[in-house]
Amino acid sequence: MKENRLKHLYVEELKDLFSAENQLLKALPKMAKASTSEDLRAAFEEHLAQTREHVARLEKIFKTLGETEGGKKCKGMAGLIEEGAEMIAEDPDPEELDAGLISAAQRVEHYEIAGYGCVSAYAKLLGEARALSLLKQTLDEEKETDKKLTQLSGRINVEAADSEESDEEGGSKKMAAKARAARA
After folding, report:
1. What is the CATH number of the domain that holds 13?
2. Which of 95, 110, 129, 170 has the greatest number of CB atoms lying within 10 Å of its CB?
3. pLDDT at position 153, please?
């Protein structure tokens, strides 16, 4: 029997999203820890809980399809996470760090929105009604997270724009580093 090419693509894209979500489960706690804004930290922690649900939904879909979820690494998500980690490692001033974390997080959200939008369209064409419902629920949550990040950026980006670069001697970098170390 000839395999439906759209179904093959659908399963491959689901595997990619499964890998992406699992990579994000490891990255979000690091982003929350690096954040100096309590509101941003809370947003990352909230999205971590949602991401666990996203993984569980994908597992349900794979079970329904009779497919395994593993075997693929999402290189796109790996690259986005690496960029965010590099920014954290540069140890910018707190305002710049938080603005950069929002930027990194929104790139991740836009990547996920694109992925979930595609697999939702495939699920609809393939008549996968239950999967479509689960995928749309996740897609809506990803869009909502992006909106929340946009709202946070309104304040945090202004703070970054109003801040001045501190000197290495006794500036806010050391205070921010101490604050992050205290949270560790």
Report:
1. 1.20.1260.10
2. 95
3. 85
